[in-house]
Design goal:
With 446 residues, this protein is of the alpha+beta class. It contains 13 helices and five strands.
Length: 446
């Protein structure tokens, strides 16, 4: 019996951890990961804790070990490799535990209300999740529902690569939903214990069940709508940068083709001057041709045509702001990224670097340095800019705070998040550091 109970506990709490982790990954912090290895660790820990719980209950009558230990274990395992300060760790710890409890209560209420409406006896519903026999169906329904919730959330967020972080308004709406449900359940319990109003029971149960099913959908639709508005705004800026870079590249290509087309005429005219022994005129003509050739030569060479055009399109603005741009090295073979992804990374990085330089004192050195180098195992891209003050890199990467100088903070400040997401899309890794009045963004590509 003890082994069966422990396995049931392990399955139940691991399913809850799965749904909790997927929810948090999609709506709170996409660094919280859910994978088979972590779920196995949680399952094994819960089984051991369940045995310990049963032992303590038999020996001392205690049975309060499993639940708090499970919530703490899940909160630690899900954020195991998230690098942040202690405050961020505790904040996520509390949020994970709260989400675990919320999913457990939500799923249990759905099963209980559904069972009651289906006419299943109250005794079976009240038997709880740890009994055998007639409560086994409730246990299976509960675990199945939790797994279904996790699977749906996985499809809507992880599978689609859409991390739709909750805003303050979304969190308030979710709390409101929970409050309404709790108040409604309180009313339901009153009806259960009052013979005079039991006639209203079926209607109230149906209303509660509908409320439990509809309100999460409404919250998700609201968040999805806001997410697409945010992504459209970002994609519009990327497309604008891409179009600007592409237009500049196309114009330079047309100028180069025109110069090549006129080269034969230029050489014929130069040969004529030489035959007529007009050496001074020929020399001046050569100097003029060299000037035209220099004007057509690319000012920036990185090894990737799209990146060359993007950086070149930023030169005028950098010069107006008194920012020096330096580029060292090239990318062998180019990046082989989609143009919009190149803009998502480098346009964002340059815009962030320019804003940091703008905040520098007028007499301070303002610079952006981009370097490309290759090691035996990976390619390394570094973007370094001068900075007036140190940046809290742990907070910046954690998503717990968004750095933006724009007034609409709910719609801006996602630059680094989009850079990291795009780099990871191509199997790379992003690092940031800040020291000696300098901010460094490093991209590691295999």
């Amino acid at each position: 019996m003890g082994a069966v109970t422990a396995l049931k506990d392990g399955l139940e709490y691991t399913a809850t951890a799965f749904a909790c982790g997927v929810f948090l990954h999609g709506f709170y912090d996409d660094r919280i990961k859910v994978n088979v290895k972590r779920l196995i660790v949680i399952f094994g820990t819960v089984v051991v804790l369940s045995f310990l719980d049963l032992l303590l209950q038999k020996q001392f009558g205690w049975n309060l070990i499993l639940l708090p230990a499970f919530f703490l274990c899940t909160a630690i395992v899900l954020q195991w490799d998230v690098k942040a300060d202690f405050t961020g760790f505790i904040k996520r710890l509390i949020f994970i535990i709260s989400t675990d409890i919320a999913i457990s209560v939500y799923s249990l209420e759905l099963v209980m209300l559904g069972a009651s409406l289906a006419g299943i006896s109250d005794a079976a519903a009240q038997a709880g999740m740890r009994e055998t026999g007639e409560s086994l169906g409730f246990y299976l329904a509960y675990v199945g529902l939790v797994v279904l919730i996790g699977a749906v959330l996985y499809y809507l967020t992880v599978r689609r690569g859409a991390a739709m972080r909750f805003r303050s308004s979304d969190i308030i709406l979710t709390i409101a939903m929970g409050t309404i449900i709790l108040l409604s359940l309180g009313l339901y319990m009153y009806i259960e214990n009052n013979e005079m109003v039991k006639l209203y029971r079926i209607g109230l149960e149906a209303m509660l069940l509908l409320l439990l099913l509809v309100m999460p959908i409404m919250i998700y639709k609201n968040r999805q709508s806001a997410y697409f508005i945010e992504m459209s705004a970002h994609n519009e800026s990327y497309l604008e940068a891409e179009l600007t870079a592409s237009r500049q590249y196309r114009e330079s290509q047309e100028e180069t083709r025109a110069f090549r087309h006129d080269m034969r005429n230029n050489l014929t005219l130069l040969a004529g001057l030489m035959q007529e022994k007009k050496y001074e005129e020929a020399e001046q003509y050569i100097r003029d041709l060299n000037g035209e050739l220099a004007a057509l030569s690319p000012t920036i060479i990185t090894g990737d045509d799209m990146l060359d055009s993007l950086l070149s399109s930023k030169l005028g603005e950098l010069e107006r702001q008194g920012i020096t741009l330096t580029i060292n090295g090239v990318i062998d073979g180019g990046l082989n990224w989609k143009p919009i992804d190149i803009c998502a990374v480098f346009a964002n990085a340059l815009d962030n670097a320019m804003r940091a330089c703008q905040a520098m004192p007028e007499d301070a050195e303002k610079y952006i340095r981009i370097s490309f180098r290759k090691t035996e195992l990976q390619r390394v891209i570094s973007i370094v800019n001068s900075s007036a003050e140190p940046v809290d890199c742990a907070k910046l990467l954690s998503g717990e705070g968004r750095y933006t100088t724009k007034s609409d903070k709910s719609r801006h400040g996602y630059g680094l998040y989009n850079i990291r997401r795009t780099v990871e899309k191509y199997g790379g890794m992003l690092k940031v550091s800040s020291e000696d009045k300098e901010f460094r963004l490093t991209i590691l590509l295999t």
